Amino acid sequence: MTADTETPGVWADLVGQERIVEILREAAEAAAARLSRSGSHTGPDVAPADAMTHAWLLTGPPGSGRSTAARAFAAALQCPSGGCGKCSACHTALAATHADVEVANTRTLSIGVADARALVSRASRHPAGGRWQVMVVEDADRLTEQAANALLKAIEEPTPRTVWLLCAPAVDDVLPTIRSRCRHLSLRTPPTTAVAAVLVRRDGVDPAMAAFAARAAQGHIGRARRLATDEQARLRRHDVMQLPLSLGRVSAAITAAGDLVKAATEDATEEVGALAAHETEDMKRALGVGAGTRQPGNASAQLKVLEDEQKKRATRAKRDGIDRALIDLAGFYRDVLAVQAGAAVELVNEEMRDAVTSVARHSSAEGTLRRIDAVLAARAAIDVNVAPLLAVEAMTVALMSG
Ligand SMILES: [Zn+2]
After folding, report:
1. Domain that holds residue 7
2. Which residues surround ligand 1, an ion (CB under 5 A)?
3. What spacing in Å lies between the alpha carbon of 150 and ligand 1's midpoint?
4. Is residue 292 part of a domain?
5. Residue 344 and residue 254 share a domain
6. Does a structural domain hold residue 293?
7. How many angstroms separate the CA atoms of 108 and 264, rounded?
8. pLDDT band at 39; cut points 50, 70, 90
9. 121 C-alpha to center of ligand 1: Å?
10. Among 199, 312, 346, 393, which one is least packed by beta carbons within 10 Å?
């Protein structure tokens, strides 16, 4: 009993997912029991029906903590004490530097067949630490069909010591052939209060700021942390939220659309830009490219590959940034709808209550629903590669009417 309430260990950063933690902890315990059984006699591992499975699919909305859950589970599998959170197995597994934990976290738009084959080959290795070979695929929704097919057999008939942890936003984002071979766990959007509490506890954020950031981020933990700790991010969000209030004339709306895309894009580029600079430095050092030395023959080719990868990632980050801005906007109109419905609820944008109330008073609930649809339509359009600025302009014009 006491152990259950006192051992957050590797699970500490998993916010508002008590049921998932319980299931994964049980699985890690069953896995450890299986290891000790197989160690006590020779012969192949017996695999009785227990809480442990070799292939898992973790789904949940962005920011709910799917990859946090996957890494915590990886740590619990590698830790001799089931995920104490203190030993080196726990630390390295959480940081994805453990020799037997492979984290494939592509930030590009898709995972191709070559990447998938590399994962399969890696998965077949015997774990160096003698426990489990854990394969985390953070964006299983980005597997191309070919790549998914390349993974299929490895997931279906894994070597006895291999565990696959696939993460994706929703179960429908993963090919049926893959998902039918996995045990599926669905993370929920963490409650605002739980997100705020973790910001206070872990990041030392002031409670009032934590409450604001958790509300504004609508359950996205990473976004909440950024809003709470980065004033620029807060200012950009503030700019985005001015759009519904500046829809007087078409020209103003078009300007507002441009501003939104710019603010959202800046947010994203800042994040990936710093990362890219680091990577380029690291690679140059590894390749021996430096001041005064001649560039080795294949160094420029390798740097070019990295550069292409970084460009793809930047494109993706921009799209994600705009998507986040559109989620913020949809939140604004949901607030308007709540006021129009007379619901006594806390608004996502509580600090804008006056503006929300004013928009609510000057429009109808039907109009608000249409506006929410317009925002969702813009998200869908960008998702199928419509140029973001065009989609956002069309949206702002739609937001003006009715
Ligand atoms: Zn440990």
Report:
1. 2-39+49-186
2. 79, 84, 87, 90
3. 33
4. no
5. yes
6. no
7. 19
8. low
9. 27
10. 346
